[in-house]
Amino acid sequence: MGKGHNDHSPLMIDGLQLAANGIHLATPLNLRLPQGQWLGILGPNGCGKTTLLKTLAGLLPAATGQLQWRCKSLLTLSARQRAEHLAIMVQHNGPCGGLTVEQVVALGNAPARRLDYARLQRVLAQCQLTPLAGRPLECLSGGQLQRTMMAQALFQDTQLLLLDEPANHLDIFHLHQLLGNLRQQPLTTIASFHDINLAAQYCDQLLLMAPGRVVACGTPEQVLTRDHLAQVFGVDAHISLGPHGCVQVTVMGLAPTKDIE
Ligand SMILES: Nc1ncnc2c1ncn2[C@@H]1O[C@H](COP(=O)(O)OP(=O)(O)OP(=O)(O)O)[C@@H](O)[C@H]1O
Predict the structure, then answer these.
(1) Could you give the CA distance from residue 211 to residue 195 in angstroms, rounded to a whole number?
(2) Which residue in 47, 35, 23 sits closest to 207, CA to CA?
(3) 128-156 pLDDT per residue, tens
(4) Is position 252 within any domain?
(5) CA–CA separation, 229 vs 251, rounded Å?
């Protein structure tokens, strides 16, 4: 991808407090993410995963805190300046205005840059969208629409990527083809997941949220414990090491005392 990297400059989140959707974290968020690493956000419905991602992207205001990327404070940049550094893929649920897949992906082009048509075709191919390039968005399946939104974020060509439920609607081929492809690129990525095993497979660090608080943050081994999963999701989980060497969670049933927040 086109821009110079600084491998020693991590993403730094300091004292971030959410301000939107009535969510107030008991303790403001602090974390570090080295260049190229993935952070997965996990937590039950409505706990604030999307709110956190949109706050980091500057789409929602933060009450306090800093988001620094390569020594730049992203939350204070204009939307246009921020788009040079950070792209977010959100779930598409609005009208499409008759635009085609190719036109929607091209909207990811940063305003100041000339449209690179060859790169646009590469991103379409990367997301297995070439045969669908001319199709109006209204005529796509859920998974095809999801890949289109992913392609739009990738076409923005930033080194920092935020993905809201990237696995949504994707069949297992497209899921692993896309996530595997992304993991081979030097993109620092924060993504929300509902599939805990998928998050453990693709992420270096996990952030486990409950409504209004961060329960745990660390490696998948540190975060995916039986206690944490009972506390946050109310499930009785068996934790093992999967054949690929990643933590694997098997839900045995609901936790004996369903003590979720
Ligand atoms: N536009 C909005 N206005 C007011 N409240 C909102 C808005 N969007 C979301 N919320 C509320 O904010 C809370 C957090 O929502 P959010 O979408 O961040 O949760 P989530 O963890 O991503 O959930 P899910 O797993 O269901 O996608 C929820 O209680 C939700 O009802």
Answers:
(1) 18
(2) 47
(3) 999 999 999 999 999 999 999 999 999 99
(4) no
(5) 9
Nearest CA to ligand 1 atom 27: 45
**Bridge partners (DSSP) listed for residue 226:** none
Q: How far is the CA of 23 from the centre of ligand 1 (A)?
A: 9
In a domain, 2, yes or no: no
Residue 114, CA distances (Å) to 81, 107, 110, 255 in order: 16, 12, 8, 55
Assigned domain for 6 exists? no
Residue 177 identity: Q
> In the prediction, which pLDDT does 261 show?
53
Q: How far is the CA of 10 from the centre of ligand 1 (A)?
A: 28
Residue 83 one-letter amino acid: A
pLDDT for the residue 9: 52
Q: Please name which of 40, 22, 20 lies closest in space to residue 31, comparing C-alpha atoms.
A: 40
ipTM confidence: 0.98
- Which CATH number covers residue 30? 3.40.50.300
Residues enclosing ligand 1, CB less than 6 A? 21, 23, 43, 45-51
The CA–CA distances, whole Å, from 259 to 17, 48, 180, 227, 236 equal: 26, 19, 36, 11, 11
**Number of domains the chain contains:** 1
- 142 lies in which domain range? 11-218
Which residues make Cβ contacts (< 8 Å) with residue 186, sequence separation at least 6?
A: 1, 5, 35, 36, 159
CA of 16 to the centre of ligand 1 (A): 18
Inside any domain, residue 235: no
pTM: 0.93
Encode pLDDT of 4-55 as tens digits: 444 455 899 999 999 999 999 999 999 999 999 999 999 999 999 999 999 9
User: What distance in Å separates the CA atoms of residue 16 and residue 63, rounded to the nearest whole number?
Assistant: 7
